[in-house]
Design brief:
This protein is globular. Mean pLDDT is about 80; it is low at about 90-100. Strands 1, 2, 3, 4, 5 and 6 form a six-stranded mixed sheet that branches. The protein has helices at about 30-45, 60-75; strands at about 5-10, 20-25, 50-55, 60, 80, 90. It has two helices and six strands.
C-alpha cells in the first residue's frame, strides 16, 4: 500500500529533451496545492524543455484526478498515470456536515 505522504523527485533526461516530475505516495486535492508550484518552478528552470508529471506510482484521490485533468489541459502538460487506473481511490464526499447544539 502506498504511503499517505507525497514524495516528489525531479528527473532531467540526460539528452536534455525532457524533465520528469515523479511523485509517489498519495495525491489529494490538498497535496496538489504543493505540487503545482514544483511544476511551475521546474518549467521555468527547464529552459523550454518538455515537462511531464509521472503519477503512475502514486495513489490518486478522485477529486485530485479531476483537478489534474483540468490542469494538464490548461497547461498543455502530460500527466502519466497507471494505465489500469487502479491507483485512483474514491473517498467519501466532503459535504458540509451540520449539527444542532442544545442551548
Amino acid at each position: 500500500m502506498a504511503s499517505d505522504k507525497l514524495s516528489v523527485v525531479v528527473r532531467v533526461d540526460l539528452d536534455g529533451d525532457q524533465i520528469q516530475i515523479a511523485a509517489t505516495g498519495r495525491v489529494t486535492a490538498k497535496s496538489l496545492q504543493g505540487l503545482y508550484p514544483v511544476v511551475q518552478r521546474t518549467k521555468s528552470l527547464g529552459g523550454g524543455l518538455a515537462v511531464e508529471m509521472d503519477l503512475s506510482e502514486a495513489t490518486i484521490d478522485t477529486d485530485a484526478l479531476r483537478q489534474l485533468q483540468v490542469y494538464a489541459e490548461l497547461h498543455e502538460m502530460p500527466v502519466r498515470l497507471n494505465p489500469d487506473l487502479d491507483n485512483v481511490t474514491a473517498l467519501p464526499s466532503r459535504e458540509l456536515q451540520t449539527a444542532t447544539r442544545a442551548a
